[in-house]
Design brief:
The chain is of the alpha+beta class and 109 residues long. It is built from two helices and five strands; from the N terminus they run E-H-H-E-E-E-E.
Length: 109
């Protein structure tokens, strides 16, 4: 059983509007993302979640639209389908995703 960790350098992407990808999120998540005051905070969240969904979609042989991330009562993200476990983190110029068959966690700092 393995866990893979991916890091994304977002330095050149934090000031570019990427709201065009918001259609990929459910209404509740989209509203939460749009409540962030700063564009960079929105972008970190969007990039981290879309990266996790893209990686999971590839592993599950699905499209990114077919993979969704939901949250438990404590806010921990998990995939709505399949047995893969994920963790997301983002801070400053970085986003990180860990994904595997066992519970895992990742932190950027």
């Amino acid at each position: 059983m393995s866990v893979e960790v991916y890091f994304l350098n977002l330095k050149n992407f934090l000031d570019r509007p990427i709201e065009k990808y918001l259609y990929l999120f459910d209404d509740e998540r989209r509203e939460k993302i749009l409540r962030y005051k700063f564009l960079a905070d929105r972008n970190r969240t969007i990039w981290a979640e879309l990266s996790a969904r893209s990686i999971a979609a590839k592993k599950l042989s699905r499209s990114i639209e077919e993979v969704s991330i939901v949250r438990d009562k404590n806010g921990k993200p998990y995939l709505s389908e399949g047995d893969l476990k994920i963790s997301l983190a983002h801070s400053k110029n970085w986003a990180a995703v860990s994904i595997g068959e066992v519970e895992n966690g990742v932190d950027v700092e």
